[in-house]
Amino acid sequence: MIRPTFDDEEEKPLDPGVEKVRKKLVRFVAINLGLLFVALMAVVAAIVYKTRSEAPAVAELPHSDIPVAAGAVLEGEIALPAGARIVSQSLSGSRLSLGLEMPGGSRAIYLYDLAERRIVGRFTITAQ
Question: Total structural domains in the chain?
């Protein structure tokens, strides 16, 4: 379809005052876009710098003081009071901490050394 042309559609030169405002607006937009681009590049550069400067730490295998030969299984027996119930346990190096609940309702902590295969500490927990 052919579009009819009208005399009103022809571009007329802008008024000098309006042209001056338009030029200022174009300059303002160009400066702001430039600043935005520089700020964005600074953020990207900072992110790249942070990710490259922080090398991931290599996790070391935990070292154990427990004397066990390769392929062997450590076996043993820990003597606890009759009726005691193990509530919690924690292992640190060659030390095993056992949280016990005694038959009377009291609590105690037993510290067992796996390397020496003996109890090295008994701690009763009492309320004050």
Answer: 2
3-state class of 87 per DSSP? strand
Distance CA 123, CA 127 (A): 13
Examine residue 77 and state whether it is found in any structural domain, yes or no: no
pLDDT 10s digits, 68-88: 677 777 777 888 888 889 999
Amino acid at position 48, single letter: V
How confident is the model over 105-126, as pLDDT tens digits?
889 999 988 888 888 998 988 7
Q: How far is the CA of 14 from the CAs of 21, 23, 31, 45, 107, in angstroms?
A: 11, 12, 24, 43, 92
Residue 113 sits in which domain range? 85-125
